[in-house]
Structure formats: structure tokens, C-alpha cells
Amino acid sequence: MLVAKYYNNSDIRLEEMPVPKIGPGEILVKVAASGICGTDAMEWYRIKKAPRILGHEIAGEIIESQSRRYKAGQRVFVSHHVPCNTCKYCLAGNHTACPTLHQGNYDPGGYSEFIRVPKINVDHGVYVLPRGVTYDEGTMIEPLACAVRGLRLIDVREGQTVLILGSGVSGILNIQLSKLKGARVVATDINPYRLNKAKEFGADEVISADKKLDILADKVIVCTGAFKAVEQAFQCIDKKGTVLLFAIPDKDIPLPIPDFWRNELTVTSSYGAAPADLKEALRLIADQKVNVKDTITHKLPLSKIQEGFNVVVEAKESLKVVLVP
Ligand SMILES: [Zn+2]
Ligand SMILES: [Zn+2]
What we know:
The chain is α/β, with parallel strands linked by helices. It has two domains: 2-140 and 292-324, Alpha-Beta Complex (Quinone Oxidoreductase, Chain A, domain 1), CATH 3.90.180; 146-269, NAD(P)-binding Rossmann-like Domain (Rossmann fold), CATH 3.40.50.720. Helices cover 30% and strands 26% of the residues. The chain has helices at residues 43-46, 88-91, 99-103, 119-125, 135-138, 141-154, 169-180, 192-200, 227-236, 257-263, 275-286, 305-314, and strands at residues 2-8, 11-16, 27-35, 58-65, 75-78, 114-117, 126-128, 161-165, 184-189, 205-208, 217-222, 237-245, 266-269, 296-301, 320-324. The strands form three sheets. Strands 3, 4, 5, 6, 7, 14 and 15 form a seven-stranded mixed beta sheet that branches. Strands 10-9-8-11-12-13 form a six-stranded parallel beta sheet, with helices on both faces. Helix 10 links the parallel strand 12 and strand 13 (266-269). The termini are close together. The mean pLDDT is 96. Residues 37, 39, 56-57, 142-143 line the site of one zinc ion (ZN).
């Protein structure tokens, strides 16, 4: 089968590998669509474990099953990381801090024609797609779930002003979810195409990120790795407000400590998604509450993965890039 091995952002190699063999309790999934995550193109982060077959936003068809719960022919989304549900983090509802969640993955990775799903992922991380949900939409369950989790953590409420810095695909998902919560949403980006998209997907106001942002928000969600966005977040956060680092820059952030103290600010982060978030994301997609379909701007064969990564790294006239093995 064809796989794509990541060495760095400009060196992704196509290779052949045998189709993995499954064991008791496991399933084999033929990948039908595989999204490129923004974090896969965060070179400083990914290069540490390279070379590696990345990809964790997949949907596909079960073609072989040794699990009693699932059978061949079912259309599914599979979560690459699953929690143990028994450690102290899981029991406190902090599943994304679970060591098991960080260790596990499917084999060999989402940029592949087939994946072997280990038993623990089969038991806690397989979601059957309802008939109305396409494979393309299935690839958006994980990214949407990450946004669901972030918004839950910072408790976005009706009537609040939410400032979303960066209108790439994660910004667009955060815009839609914040609107669903009844918030007023202001979104930024440096790219006019993405500003237009932000408007299309429901932002009440869009501002070019290279202008001075004259706004005070109850919640600021940083959805870009641009360092300047973090500075803007601290300039625009209202008293008692919360800054969510949904995306992060690759260097440390100086915290404006006096402002933090006087204004009682909170800065927090959100990593990944827990099963409850994935379930919620699938429901939002199935009920057409969130439009994920139109966030997919590029579809390419797996063999053109390098081109896909270039599009993601360029971050211009694109939102989601989906690969088709
Ligand atoms: Zn992702
Ligand atoms: Zn755990």
C-alpha cells in the first residue's frame, strides 16, 4: 500500500508498505479521506519525531474486523488518541492529559491507504458515520472536536464578545461554534481571502490583523501560530477575560504580569479532544449545525501530499486540505 512519510515540511516521501495485519479485537480500515492538520505542518513540533507517517483526521470503511462490535462495510471515523478512562486525569474529566491518550495511535498513520486500529482504539475511538455524513465531513470530526473542547474550557456564553485571531480552518470552526453559543464574534487574519471566509462563516465583524485592533473582548481565541497574534490577544482582552491558546507560536510568550494581576486575566490552552468532544462534533456535523463541508477547499490524491503541505504552509487561499488515498 502507498504511505507518505514525513521528514520535514518540504520532504515528504511516498513509500510502499505491506498492508498491516490485524489481531484479536482489531479492525482494518481503508482510508477514504485524510485531512492535513495545521499541527502536521508545525515543523518545529513534528520534526522531533520524524521520519514518521503522520495524519490523524481520517474517515474510511472497515474492510476487516476481529471485533465483535464492528463489521466490515461500516463507514467510520477513528480517533488516533484514546484515553484510558481510569487514571486520575480521566476521572477528573481531563482526558487529554491522560498518558495513554498521548502514547496510543493507529498503525501506521493517517497518510496511508489502510490503517490497523489497535483494540483500545476500537473500544474507545470508533465512531460510525450516520448515512448523511460524508467521508470528507468525517475528516473534520477531530478538528471540530478540538474546537468544541476549547470553547467548553473557556465557557463562551451568549452576549459575550469573542475575538478570534486567525481565520484559517481552526478559526472558522471557532467562529461557527462561538456563534452557536450566541456570542458576538470578531475575527482577524492578514489574508483577505480568509477574512472573507470568516465573514461567510458567520463572523459579525472582520478586521485585518495588520491594523490596530481597537476592541475589548471577553474571550480571545488564538488560532494562528503568528507571534504577533499573542501580543494582540493581551492587548484586546477585557478585565476578567480569558485568552485561549488554541494554536501557539514556536517561542515563549512574555506575560504582561501587572495586567494579569490588576485585571484578573486568565490564559489557558487546549490540546486535542476527548471522546465526549468527538461525539459532540459528530452530532454537530450530522445535524448540520456546523458547516464543515465548505471548509474543505482542496482535495488531492495522497500521492500529491507534498503539494497539500505546501498549500497548508503557505496559508493563503485555502482552508482545509484533504487527501484521498
Ligand atoms: Zn488535527
Ligand atoms: Zn487516563
